[in-house]
Amino acid sequence: MAFTNFQDVIRLIAVSLILLSQLAVSQVTPSIRPFPLNRVRLTNSRWTDNQARTVTYLKFIDVERLLYNFRANHGVSTKGAAALGGWDAPNFPFRTHMQGHFLTAWAYCYASLGDTTCRDRALYFVAELAKCQASNGYLSGFPESDFDLVEARKLTNGNVPYYAVHKTMAGLLDVWQLFDDNTARDVLLKLAGWVDNRTSKLSSAQMQAMLGTEFGGMNDVLADIYHQTGDKRWLTVAQRFDHASVFDPLASNQDRLDGLHANTQVPKWIGAVKEYTSTGASKYLAIARNAWNFTVNAHTYAIGGNSQAEHFRAPNKISGYLSKDTAEGCNTYNMLKLTRELWMTDSSVGDKTHHFDFYERALINHMLGQQNPQDKHGHITYFTSLNPGGRRGVGPAWGGGTWSTDHNSFWCCQGTGIETNTKLMDSVYFTKDEPSSKVLYVNLFTPSVLNWAEQSVTITQTTGFPVEDTTTLLINSTRGDSAGNWALRIRIPSWTSPEAEVRVNGEKVAGLAAVPGTYFPLQRDWKNGDRVTVRLPMFLRAVPANDNPSIAAFAYGPAVLAGNYGDTVLSAVPKLALDTVRRASGDKIEFEVTADSKSVRLQPFYDAHGHNYNVYWATSGRLPA
Ligand SMILES: *[C@@H]1O[C@H](CO)[C@@H](O)[C@H](O)[C@H]1NC(C)=O
Ligand SMILES: *[C@@H]1O[C@H](CO)[C@@H](O)[C@H](O)[C@H]1NC(C)=O
Ligand SMILES: *[C@@H]1O[C@H](CO)[C@@H](O)[C@H](O)[C@H]1NC(C)=O
């Protein structure tokens, strides 16, 4: 092709650029959607107990003290409030990360429970943040000079200002979305504009160097703002935070996680899913999918947690790292978010349940028991120890060393913990529109009521799961006898047996088997009062360490078991003879075993509180048939 003049060349370039930008941005809409938080109500159970303790803390914490660092940094009166301690102390490198978690947790509390104290706290906090921002145009607990230092790679105080900014932005976004609050919107977009302004001045080499400092999920929240506003500016800023040294190996399916700080990475992968839905670029989906696969299959302990001393170790090195500082809480909070986003988005998953099998495992065995049931404010432990004779709330001093406290901890895991325990209803049910029908997914077996208003039905789930192996779904119609024609898809976990069954009004569904590891599809004309019973037989199984088949944990159904050692100190992994395992109680999950020649009781790990426990054993022989 010959160009006759310069203008033709310019025109051709312009047309190509427009075509390229259209190619680059083609949104993907996940086919599966969650229900709004106010549509799912948890009913009395172990789950609502956790929720109630956290909500008590959300309403107890002194909001003026939480505002201290923002006000002090922006030259606004601190109203005589005292500074807080721990990670919110005025010079601590992670200060003001906690406040964004409170904004999110208050928003969840109001959205799910209609609690007006939570609402008023969130709205007041946002209004006060607006005053801080008005005083000098940005919003942070750090002076702007600290951002200069991070950019110039001259930071010597360990500060992670963008980590905290991410949490603030995520909290503001939740308040904007869940309360429709314009102040939250304005503060958020102004803060995002400030981030754009700063980062647009950096070369890509400077930007990539800066990404060496932990920055939470900046790509995630900015992609969310793009989804919320439709303004491509925010997508451009989100993509500036794509961390090449982490993304590139994952895009080509290489596990280079060994030695990386784990919780620094997972939020970036959640962002990758959002960048995939923003752009349609398959590279982002590959990054998230491969990161999930590596983490779950090569870096995760039986309880669903990952990391040792906050870091990923070599792939499959599980038995070599059974220490006090395993399974940082935040990592699992973030892995659950990643799991949920990927499952909704990755259409190649089909009817396989591995995503929610992992979700259930990590939620029940790690997150549920991370909270102290003896504490009315629901304080949490930073690590969940997997050393022989570990104990919740006892860890290395640098990782808390104890349970979190009201005013002097504010660790990352305390922040993610208040979110976890106020969104326990968010992944039980999902929906999807298929050409032939509407679909309702039941992913978790949690006592709850779903208001599926679009179909004029409520679904009441009743279960003592995981202590009981049965769950009942009662379908009620609000429009008379008929409850409509739609499809139910119930997760049949991979840990159950082919004897799993689904019955409608007591009758087995003809011609349909409940296959472990798939969703049970049930489309029919539903009637008011139809009752679906799901039975998922549980049995005892070993969960061997990836790197050593003779070192194993045990699980009964979804529940990982732990030996109760009282105050006995263990110095090595106990030796357990498999043929000694006996069920100790018919109606509780309790087993009796002989380990190191002593009788030990095994109980669900989520209830292993107030005593030393053991999760991994050196096994010999075979389990009794
Ligand atoms: C962008 O930064 C410059 C200084 O580098 C400042 O003068 C300007 O006001 C900033 N704009 C916004 C929108 O923050
Ligand atoms: C998932 O990760 C495992 C463990 O590293 C690996 O063996 C497997 O090949 C990966 N699967 C895919 C589809 O990449
Ligand atoms: C739901 O159905 C059950 C079983 O028929 C019935 O007992 C109950 O009253 C119904 N509840 C409502 C709200 O219609």
Automatic annotation (TrEMBL):
Keywords in alphabetical order: Signal
Every Non-reducing end beta-L-arabinofuranosidase-like GH127 catalytic domain range: 40-424
The organism's place on the tree of life at top rank: Eukaryota
InterPro entries per record: 6-hairpin_glycosidase_sf, Beta-AFase-like_GH127_cat, Beta-AFase-like_GH127_middle
Identification of the protein by name: DUF1680-domain-containing protein
Source species: Cercophora newfieldiana
Keyword Hydrolase among UniProt keywords: no
A UniProt-annotated Pfam family: Beta-AFase-like_GH127_cat
